[in-house]
Design brief:
The complex is a heterotrimer of chains A (194), B (769) and C (264). Chain A has a four-stranded mixed sheet with strand order 8-1-10-9. Chain A is globular and about 50 Å long. Chain A has five helices and ten strands, in the order E-H-E-E-E-E-H-E-E-H-H-E-H-E-E. Chain B is globular and about 75 Å long. Chain C has 264 residues and is mainly α. Chain C contains eleven helices and one strand, in the order E-H-H-H-H-H-H-H-H-H-H-H. Chain C is globular and about 70 Å long. Classes of the chains: A alpha+beta (194), B alpha/beta (769), C mainly alpha (264). Chains in contact: A-B, A-C, B-C.
Chain lengths: 194, 769, 264
C-alpha cells in the first residue's frame, strides 16, 4: 500500500534521453511510439536565453481521467497508486487514449493500449524504474509519497520550485518537475517545430 | 494499428476462417493472449564493457531466450556506476541490426573501388587474398608500405599489436590527430603527463568550472556527465565559453558567447589578471613550476581590454571570471575538453588553458586535476616486436619512441610536425604522392574514413591508388564499400576483446566477454588479427592459442584470473590521486625536462615554436559565408549510430543551426531544407534548418555524423548533412599534428527538396530481424 | 521554440476505420430507434424493418471488430460485465448488443408485443447518444465540447432519416426537416460554446476557424437540406447525409489533435 511518485529535477536534466532509450529496451516499446520522450524548449532572446529539457511520460495521476473512460475495466489504478492496464482485458477501443490530457497512452500494435507503468515489474523486485536507474545526471527520483523518509519526499522538501503539468485539468499528477529554469513555469511553447 | 484497405478486405473475406492460430513464431498460442515480456523469462547476466563511444563504460548485459534484451551499467564500475547513456542502452539495436555485414566479401575482379560490386567468400579465401597481397607489397616496397588505421577497442589488435609484429610504423588512430592531439601534446610538455582517455578532472571536489567549448550534456561521456551534474547540484559555479548556447551553457551561471577561434586571447587575458593582480597561487607556482617570470613579461599587454576587442566579450566579464577563478582556487578548474583540433593553433591554446590551471594551483590538488595512475597490468609475454608504432590514442600513451630500429623506416609523417604520435590525415599524402616513400596498402579497422578525415575527395583519390585496401567493420559504411576485401567483425556483445586499463583516481581493469554467439559469419577482431598474423608468417608473435588463454595469462600475472574477472567485470586498484600522495613516496609526477610544470617550454623554443602561448587569429570567413562549427548529440556517437533504430527514433537527422537574425536576412523558414556549400564549392545536404537564438550570427552549427551515403544503411541513408564532407580544408597544427577542422566556411543555398525517405519507425518495422 | 527527442504522444488514435464506425453507428442507432418507434405504433410495420436494423448493427459491430488491434479479445463479451457508467463505450457496447438481441427476438416472434419495441427504443436511444458522450467526455480535447452530447445524436438521426427517405420515399420528410434545423442550430452554436470557454476552448475555436472548411461546408449542406426538404426530398436527403457526415467526420478527425503536444 504505497503512493508511488516520481520527481524530475529540471535544473539537472540535460535531455540526454538515456531514460527514453532505456525505456524502449526495458519495456519492449515497439517502433513508432514512445512511452517516454523529451521536450526541449528554447526561451528568450540572444544572449538572455533559457533552455528547458523536460522528459514526459504518464504521470500516474491520483485522479486519472483514463480510468473511468475504460469500458472493460482494463485501465485501473492499483493500490500503490500506479495507473496500469490489464492487457488481457483491453479491447483497444482507444477511449483512454482520448481521455489522457498528456498524450501518455498509445496503441501498441500487439493489441492493447500501452504507456509508462513506472516499471511496475521492477518495483516488485525492489528496483527503481529503468529511467530512474540509468539517468546519468541523477535528476530522477522515485519513491513512496506516503513514506516520509523516501527519496522522493526528500527531493520535494529540498526543491526550490515544484510544478506539475496542466494542474487545471484536476488530474493531480504524481510526476513532479522541480526547479524549472523557466520563470513562466511549464507553459507549453507557442511554436512547435514539426 | 493502421488498417490499410487491402488488409481490411482480406479480413472481411476470410473473417470466419481467419482464426490465425499460432501465427507468430510457431507457438500455438491463443490469439487473444498477450505476448510475454522478456523479463518474465529466465534472465542471465554477463559483464562486459560498452563500445558505443570510446568511454568504455562497464556494462551488465541481460540475456533471455538466447538473445540480448537489455544493457545496464555496472554498479561497481567507476565509469558507469550503474548508469548508462542512451547509446549504451541502445546497443541491443546494433547487435540485431539486419543491415550488418554478415560474410567476408571480395570485390569483383575488374570493378572500380566504390562501385560496390562484391562476391561472398569464406574467411580462408578472404584472409589468403589479403595476406598474399600484403606480402607482395612488403617484398616490393617494405613493410612500412602498409598503413593501419583503427579506432575502437579492437584498435589494440590492428593499430598496436599486428602493425608492431608486421613492422610498419604507419599505424594511426583518428582519436589522435583528428581529436585529442593538441591537448595531449600540450599536457605532455606542460605537466609531463598526458591527459588520457578518462580526463582526470576532480569534479567531485571542484567549486568553480570554466568550460571552453566542451559541450557537456550534448557530449555525454557517462561518468563526466554524472560528475558534472553532481558538482552543479552541490553548488559549484559554472562558466561556459562557447559561440553557441549549448546544453552546458543552459546550466551556467555565466555564458560567454565568444567569437569563434579567439579562446586563446581570453585565456591569455585571464593569465594577465591572475599575474597582474597577484591572484595566482604563489606557493604552488613557486614550488611546482618554472617560467613565471617569462610568462609575466609575455602577458603584460594581454589585458582584458585587449582580449575584449578580439573575443567580442566585455572586458569586465573577462576580469570578473579571472577573479572568481582565483577566489575559488584551488577548487577552480578549466577542464581540457576532448576534441581540440579546431584552428591549427590548438596546442598553444591548450598550453594557455593548462597554464591558467597551474596558476590556480589546482593540478594534483583536490578540486582541480587529480593525478591519474595506470592500473598494474602485464602484457602477454610474446617475443619482442620489431617496432612499436606510436599511434597513441585517447586511452593509449601519448609518447612513442623516436628510435627507428635497424632495417625499418620511420613513420611516413615524420618531420611534418613535432609530436611523436602519428597523424592519420598526414598518412594519406604518401598514398597519393609516394613521398617520403610509398604507402600501397591500407588495413582499416572500424574507422569511418569518409566521416572522420578531412578532405574526403583526397581520401577517395588515395584509396583508388592503393594496391590493397581492406576494411574490417560491423556495418556497410560508405568507406567499407570501397574496399578490396571486407571482413565482418561481430559487435562488442558477441566477442572478447583485450583488457581495458583505465588510468584513474582508482585505476581499474575491465573485461569484455561475449553475451551471445556471433551472428551470421561475423568474427571477433582478435580472431581476425590472429588468423591474418598466421597467414602472414607472424605466428610466433601470437603464441596464445585462444583469447581466453591470452586474457587469463595477463590476469594471472596480476593475481587474478579470467574466471574471476568474468564474475566481477571490473577490477579496481588503488590510485595515487594527489600531489601529497606522490610526495609521500618521494616521487615526482612531472616528467618534464625540468621536472616541474613548465609555464615556459624550453623544448618548444628549441624546436622553433613559441615557448609561451600566443594568440593566432583564425582564418577569417569570406563574405557571405559562415564558419562551420560542429559537435555532438547526446543520442548519437560520431557516424556510427545512425543506423540504430532506437537512437534514430530519438533523433533521425541533424539540422543546421543558424541565428534567427541571419535566417531572416536569408528569408529562411523554420524547418525548411537547404544545401550547404563550402568556400571550395563542395555541396552537402539537403539538411533541415533550425532557426534559433542560441548561436552567434557569424557561425552555423551541425551535429557530426549524419549525411550517410551508403544505401546499405537503410536507416541512416540520406538523412541530414555530413560536416566532414564540408571539411575539405584543414590547418595542420605543427606541434601536435592535429588537423584544425574549423576553418571551413559555408553558405546557405535555400530551396532544397525535402528528402523523400520513409519514416524511421516504418523502416524499423520493415527490416526486423 | 519546442523540439523533441523521441516521438511525443499526441498522434491520432482513431483512423479512417473509426470514421466508418461513426457513420455506421449513427445509421444503426437511428434506424433501430425508428424501427422501435414504428413498431410501438404498428407491430407488423416495425417487424418489416427489423432485419435491416439488425443488418446495420451487425455491420457496425463487424467494422469495430475488424479494425480493432485486439480483435480476438473484442469478442470476449464477459469483459463488459462490469459496471462502468463513465465509459461511453460501455454504454455503447450494451446498447448495441441488447438492441441486436431484441431485434432478433422481434424477428423470431410472429407478433412481438409493444413492450419489446419499447425496450428496443430505450436501447437504441443509448446507441444514438453514446458516440457524442464518447467524445464530449474528454476534457483533454476541447474541440469535443459538451455541445456534442446533443450535436452527435442530432446528426445521427439526420443520417438515419436520410437513409430512410432514400429507401422508403417521403415517409419521414417532416422529421428530416426538423432534425436538419436542430442539427444546423447546434452546429452554429459550437463556435459560440467554444468562445465562451477558457483558454483551451479558445484554442479549439482558433483551430475551427483556421481549418474548419469542411465543417462549414457540412453546415451549409445541412442548411440546404432543411430548406429543400419538402420540395425535393431526395436532394434534401442527399444533402443531409453528406452534411451530417462531414460535420461528424471533421470533428472526430480534428478533435483528436493534441493540444498538449503540438499546440494548436
Amino acid at each position: 500500500m504505497a503512493r508511488y511518485a516520481m520527481v524530475i529535477d529540471l535544473e539537472s536534466c540535460v535531455g540526454c534521453s538515456a531514460c527514453a532509450a532505456a525505456c524502449v529496451l526495458e519495456n519492449e516499446v515497439p517502433p513508432g511510439h514512445n512511452r517516454l520522450w523529451i521536450r526541449q524548449r528554447e526561451l528568450g532572446v540572444f544572449p538572455e536565453l533559457t533552455v528547458e529539457y523536460r522528459p514526459e511520460q504518464c504521470l500516474h495521476c491520483e485522479n486519472p481521467p483514463c480510468v473511468p473512460a475504460c469500458p472493460t475495466g482494463a485501465s485501473y489504478k492499483n493500490e500503490d497508486g500506479l495507473v496500469l492496464v490489464k492487457y488481457e482485458r483491453c479491447i483497444a477501443c482507444g477511449a483512454c487514449v482520448a481521455a489522457c490530457p498528456y498524450d501518455a497512452r498509445f496503441m501498441n500494435p500487439a493489441g492493447y493500449v500501452d504507456k509508462c507503468t513506472f516499471c511496475e515489474h521492477r518495483i516488485a523486485d525492489g528496483l527503481d524504474p529503468a529511467c530512474v536507474e540509468t539517468c546519468p545526471t541523477g535528476c530522477r527520483v522515485f519513491g513512496d509519497l506516503d513514506d516520509p523518509t523516501s527519496a522522493v519526499r526528500e527531493a520535494l522538501a529540498k526543491a526550490g520550485r515544484i510544478d506539475v503539468l496542466r494542474p487545471e485539468m484536476g488530474t493531480e499528477p504524481k510526476l513532479f518537475y522541480l526547479n524549472t529554469p523557466s520563470n513562466r513555469g511549464l507553459d507549453e511553447a507557442e511554436e512547435v517545430q514539426q | 494499428m493502421k488498417l490499410n484497405r487491402r488488409k481490411f478486405l482480406t479480413l472481411s473475406a476470410a473473417s470466419v476462417g481467419a482464426v490465425a492460430l499460432g501465427g507468430r513464431a510457431g507457438a500455438l498460442k491463443a490469439p487473444w493472449t498477450v505476448p510475454q515480456k522478456w523479463y518474465e523469462e529466465q534472465v542471465s547476466t554477463v559483464y562486459s564493457y560498452c563500445e558505443n563511444c570510446f568511454w568504455k563504460c562497464g556494462i551488465t548485459v541481460k540475456v533471455a531466450g538466447g538473445k540480448v534484451r537489455k544493457i545496464d551499467g555496472q554498479k561497481h564500475n567507476p565509469k558507469s556506476r550503474g548508469r548508462l547513456c542512451p547509446r549504451g542502452q541502445a546497443g541491443v539495436a546494433q547487435l540485431y541490426d539486419p543491415d550488418r555485414l554478415k560474410r567476408p566479401l571480395i570485390r569483383v575482379e575488374g570493378s572500380e573501388r566504390g562501385e560496390g560490386k562484391y562476391r561472398e567468400a569464406s574467411w580462408d579465401e578472404a584472409l589468403d587474398y589479403i595476406a598474399a597481397r600484403m606480402l607482395k607489397i612488403k617484398d616490393e616496397y617494405g613493410p612500412e608500405a602498409i598503413a593501419w588505421f583503427g579506432h575502437g577497442s579492437g584498435d589494440s589488435w590492428f593499430v598496436e599489436y599486428l602493425p608492431a609484429a608486421w613492422g610498419s610504423p604507419n599505424a594511426a588512430k583518428p582519436a589522435v590527430s583528428v581529436c585529442t592531439a593538441p591537448r595531449e601534446t600540450a599536457s605532455q610538455w606542460t605537466f609531463g603527463r598526458g591527459v588520457g582517455g578518462h580526463e582526470p578532472v576532480d569534479w567531485e571536489n571542484t567549486e568553480y568550472i570554466v568550460l571552453i567549448g566542451h559541450h557537456i550534456g550534448e557530449d555525454t561521456h557517462n561518468t563526466q556527465l554524472q560528475e558534472f551534474a553532481a558538482a552543479l547540484r552541490r553548488g559549484a559555479k559554472l562558466v561556459v565559453v562557447d559561440p553557441r548556447f549549448s546544453t552546458a551553457a543552459s546550466k551556467a551561471d555565466r555564458w560567454l558567447p565568444i567569437k569563434p577561434g579567439t579562446d586563446t586571447a581570453l585565456l591569455l587575458a585571464w593569465i594577465n589578471v591572475l599575474i597582474e593582480e597577484g591572484l595566482y597561487d604563489r606557493e604552488y607556482v613557486e614550488k611546482y613550476t618554472v617560467g613565471l617570470a617569462e610568462l609575466a613579461e609575455h602577458v603584460k599587454d594581454k589585458t582584458p581590454e585587449w582580449a575584449a576587442s578580439i573575443t567580442d566579450l566585455p572586458a569586465d566579464t573577462i576580469r570578473a571570471v579571472a577573479r572568481e577563478l582565483a577566489a575559488h582556487a584551488p577548487k577552480a578548474v578549466l577542464p581540457p575538453g576532448r576534441h581540440t583540433v579546431w584552428y591549427g593553433s590548438d596546442t598553444q591554446r591548450m598550453r594557455a588553458l593548462y597554464i591558467v590551471n597551474a596558476l590556480l594551483g589546482n593540478y594534483g590538488v583536490p578540486g582541480g586535476f587529480y593525478l591519474a595512475k595506470k592500473p598494474y597490468l602485464e602484457k602477454y609475454p610474446h617475443p619482442p616486436f620489431p617496432l612499436e608504432p606510436a599511434a597513441g590514442g585517447c586511452s593509449g600513451s601519448s609518447g612513442g619512441s623516436e628510435e627507428v630500429p635497424e632495417g625499418y623506416k620511420p613513420r611516413a609523417d615524420k618531420g611534418k610536425f613535432f609530436a611523436k604520435t602519428t597523424a592519420i590525415q598526414e598518412l594519406i599524402e604518401p598514398m597519393l604522392s609516394g613521398k617520403p616513400y610509398p604507402i600501397r596498402g591500407l588495413i582499416c579497422y572500424g574507422t569511418n574514413l569518409f566521416h572522420s578525415i578531412p578532405n574526403v575527395p583526397r581520401t577517395k583519390e588515395a584509396l583508388r591508388k592503393l594496391d590493397l585496401y581492406v576494411a574490417i567493420d560491423v556495418l556497410p559504411m560508405e568507406h567499407v564499400m570501397w574496399a578490396d576485401v571486407i571482413l565482418p567483425e561481430c559487435t562488442y556483445l558477441e566477442r572478447y576483446d583485450d583488457l581495458v586499463a583505465i588510468a584513474h583516481k582508482t585505476p581499474f581493469i575491465e573485461l569484455r566477454q561475449p553475451a551471445v554467439k556471433p551472428l551470421w559469419d561475423s568474427k571477433p577482431g582478435w580472431w581476425i588479427m590472429r588468423e591474418l598474423a598466421i597467414k602472414l608468417g607472424l605466428e610466433k608473435f601470437v603464441p596464445w592459442k585462444s583469447i581466453e588463454e591470452y586474457l587469463d595469462t595477463r590476469l594471472q600475472a596480476i593475481g587474478s584470473s579470467l574466471e574471476e574477472m568474468k564474475k566481477k567485470g571490473t577490477l579496481v586498484q588503488r590510485g595515487r590521486p594527489y600531489l601529497n600522495d606522490w610526495e609521500r613516496w618521494h616521487m615526482n609526477p612531472f616528467k618534464t625536462p625540468s621536472g616541474k610544470i613548465e609555464l615556459y617550454s624550453k623544448t618548444f623554443a628549441e624546436h622553433g615554436f613559441d615557448p609561451l602561448p600566443d594568440y593566432t587569429p583564425p582564418m577569417p570567413a569570406p563574405t557571405g559565408y559562415y564558419r562551420l562549427l560542429y559537435g555532438r548529440s547526446p543520442v548519437h556517437s560520431f557516424a556510427k549510430t545512425q543506423n540504430n533504430w532506437v537512437l534514430m527514433e530519438l533523433k533521425p537527422e541533424n539540422e543546421v543551426w543558424i541565428s534567427n537574425a541571419e535566417g531572416k536576412k536569408l528569408g529562411l523558414r523554420q524547418g525548411e531544407y537547404v544545401w550547404l556549400e563550402n568556400d571550395a564549392g563542395v555541396r552537402e545536404g539537403p539538411v533541415r534548418v533550425r532557426l534559433t537564438e542560441r548561436i552567434r550570427n557569424d557561425c552555423v552549427y551541425l551535429v557530426h555524423g549524419f549525411g550517410h551515403k551508403s544505401r546499405g544503411l537503410r536507416l541512416a541513408f540520406g538523412r541530414g548533412a555530413s560536416d566532414n564532407a564540408l571539411q575539405t580544408r584543414y590547418v595542420l597544427d605543427k606541434i601536435s599534428g592535429g588537423a584544425g577542422l574549423r576553418n571551413n566556411f559555408v553558405k546557405i543555398v535555400p530551396n532544397a527538396a525535402k528528402p523523400r525517405l520513409k519514416r524511421i519507425s516504418t523502416l524499423a518495422r520493415e527490416r526486423r530481424l | 521554440m519546442t523540439t523533441f527527442y523521441g516521438i511525443p504522444g499526441g498522434g491520432h488514435f482513431w483512423h479512417w476505420t473509426t470514421q466508418i464506425h461513426f457513420l455506421l453507428v449513427a445509421l444503426a442507432g437511428g434506424f433501430t430507434l425508428y424501427t422501435a418507434l414504428l413498431g410501438m405504433k404498428n407491430g407488423s410495420e416495425g417487424r418489416k424493418l427489423a432485419p435491416w436494423a439488425l443488418l446495420l448493427i451487425a455491420a457496425d459491430l463487424f467494422m469495430l471488430w475488424a479494425e480493432s488491434p485486439a480483435r480476438f479479445r473484442f469478442t470476449q463479451f464477459w469483459l463488459f460485465l462490469g459496471i462502468h457508467p463513465k465509459a461511453a463505450i460501455w454504454w455503447g457496447a450494451w446498447g448495441l448488443a441488447l438492441s441486436a438481441l431484441l431485434l432478433l427476438v422481434i424477428i423470431l416472434q410472429k407478433q412481438a408485443g409493444k413492450y419489446w419495441y419499447a425496450l428496443l427504443a430505450v436501447c437504441s436511444t443509448i446507441v444514438v447518444l453514446y458516440p457524442g458522450y464518447a467524445l464530449a467526455a474528454n476534457a483533454a480535447r476541447p474541440l469535443w465540447d459538451h455541445l456534442l452530447l446533443a450535436l452527435f445524436p442530432a446528426t445521427a438521426l439526420l443520417l438515419a432519416l436520410a437513409l430512410l427517405i432514400a429507401w422508403r420515399g417521403e415517409e419521414a420528410v417532416r422529421w428530416l426537416e426538423l432534425t436538419s434545423w436542430v442539427s444546423l442550430l447546434l452546429a452554429l452554436l459550437l463556435p459560440a460554446a467554444l468562445a465562451s470557454g477558457g483558454v483551451d476552448q479558445a484554442r479549439a475555436l482558433a483551430l475551427l476557424l483556421r481549418r474548419g472548411l469542411l465543417f462549414g461546408l457540412g453546415t451549409l449542406l445541412v442548411l440546404l437540406a432543411a430548406l429543400t426538404a419538402r420540395r425535393t426530398p431526395a436532394l434534401a436527403a442527399a444533402c443531409a447525409f453528406a452534411g451530417a457526415w462531414l460535420i461528424r467526420g471533421w470533428l472526430v478527425a480534428e478533435g483528436q489533435h493534441s493540444l498538449f503536444t503540438h499546440g494548436f
